[in-house]
Design goal:
Structural class: alpha/beta
Distance between the termini: 50 Å
Number of helices: 13
Number of strands: 24
Helix content: 25-40%
Shape: globular
Strand content: 25-35%
Length: 455
């Protein structure tokens, strides 16, 4: 079945779509059912296997490919045209990745979707003439709205790291693709192939995000996709985009300040709030400005604007932990640590709840991870404090002989001397998030580090 046609049909009748990722497992489906309490389930024939999940079996209406189960529906459906909806009506629900905890149900109203669409059209420059290689499936809807052509890459979205880059290159050439949207991991594999085969492709634009990009990787992109404008987009499920930076500006940015994320989009407000645990409630007579750090200091990035998500489904706790009310304005806590330099550019430092306590003071992980990524032979890194001890992991690049692993550990020890890590080790595969395969799976890595500590 064509999932995009189905989603548009659901919108047409005024119903709400819960968009599930292809990689969603049994536990994620159970959480989704508990959060949104769905009345219908639509899936391919293979989805019948999901009937083993009790929460799926309880859903009253099920459409499995061409088989329709309607135990509580009688009569036909008369098409009287599209349903009238308001901006505040729910339209689409997506679940956050949950790489740092329990996934949240993002309540995307029709008004929010409209605002986000307009921002993306302007920010990314989507035009009807675009033939876009869309490696982020949900982004197809933006292209449909703008009249642009989407080409889905020949890969399984459930396994975003497993694809044949040669097939993708052939698609780009045969379909005359001129733009592309995807994760850093997707373009890294494509770039490695192009450089290995000494092939060239030139696109009008590449837009990547969903995880930090190192300067070494940015230089690889610049070389592999020479002549292409490459933008690194910063955002989150609740606010996309927040900012972006052109790749040459990123490469020339000041690494001592963190990872450059560019200047905020014109339709969003960005502030840096003091790192605070738990829900934040503005005291009477005060505003959000009374809770901000001093200029140039690191704190939590908070955002507000028309395309910033204002609510979640099924969890009051999620709202309290992630939103701050300042009068009528809803500020979203991104959970990202960062700062804003005098010119207005955002710099990222890592996740706010992954602060580390070192001999030199409180620090965040991202600048250290980026530093390690500049070591030749390192493909991915993770730095985290677990139970008062700082752990450092490095993933070697393909083809790096095991005899070189000791060199990586020795080099990392020198670079991170002031951090004084408890343990530096090599992992053949550092756990990634299942959606983009580009950023750390914090919970799984914490479990690994806890195992090391117990030995």
């Amino acid at each position: 079945m064509n999932s995009y046609v189905i989603v548009l049909a659901v919108f047409y009748i005024g119903a709400v779509t819960v968009f599930m990722d292809a990689w969603a497992g049994r536990e994620r489906l159970k959480n989704a059912c508990a959060t949104v309490l769905p009345k219908g389930f639509i899936g391919c024939l293979k989805a019948q296997l999901l009937m083993i999940v009790p929460e799926i079996r309880k859903i009253p209406v099920k459409v499995l490919d061409r088989v329709l189960f309607l135990p509580e529906l009688s009569g036909g459906y008369n098409d009287s045209g599209p349903e009238d909806i308001d901006d505040d009506d729910e339209g689409l629900v997506t679940l956050t990745t949950g790489s740092t905890g329990m996934p949240k149900g993002a309540d995307r109203t029709h008004g929010f979707l409209s605002e986000q669409f307009n921002v993306l059209i302007r920010h990314i420059g989507i035009e009807s003439s675009n033939i876009d290689l869309t490696a982020l499936p949900v982004f197809v809807f933006c292209n449909l709205g703008a009249g642009a052509t989407s080409v889905l890459p020949e890969f399984n979205p459930a396994k975003p790291s497993e694809f044949d880059p040669g097939s993708i290159v052939r698609q780009i050439k045969e379909c005359e693709i001129n733009t592309s949207v995807g994760s850093p991991a997707f373009y890294e594999k494509l770039a490695d192939y192009l450089m290995k085969k000494n092939e060239r492709i030139t696109l009008k634009g590449i837009y990547t995000g969903g995880a930090p990009v190192s300067k070494m990787l940015a230089k690889k992109f610049e070389k592999a996709f020479s002549g292409t404008r490459i933008e690194i987009v910063y955002g989150c499920t609740e606010a996309e985009p927040i900012s972006s930076i052109e790749i040459s500006d990123f490469i020339n940015s000041d690494s001592s300040l963190g990872v450059a994320a560019g200047y905020p989009d014109q339709s969003i407000r960005v502030k840096i709030m003091k790192p605070l645990n738990g829900a934040v409630r503005i005291e009477d007579g005060k505003s959000i400005d009374d809770y901000l750090v001093h200029p140039g200091e690191v704190g939590e990035i908070v955002v507000a604007g028309p395309h910033v998500l204002k609510s979640y489904l099924g969890s009051i706790d999620a709202w309290g932990a992630n939103k701050v009310m300042d009068g009528d304005t809803v500020w979203h806590r991104t959970g990202d640590a960062g700062m804003i330099e005098p010119s207005g550019r955002i710099y990222l430092q890592g996740r706010i709840n992954n602060i580390m306590h070192s001999d030199s003071g409180d620090v965040y992980s991202l600048p250290y991870e980026q530093m390690l990524m500049d070591i030749e032979g390192v493909a991915f890194t993770a730095v985290m404090e677990v139970e008062g001890k700082i752990f450092v992991a490095m993933e070697p690049g393909q083809g790096l002989p095991q005899s070189q692993h000791y060199y990586l550990i020795e080099k990392a020890g020198t670079l991170l001397k002031e951090l004084n890590p408890y343990r530096i080790f090599i992992l053949n595969r550092i756990p990634r998030d299942p959606r983009h395969n580009s950023k750390l799976d914090f919970a799984e890595f914490r479990r690994i580090c806890t195992g090391f500590k117990l030995r």
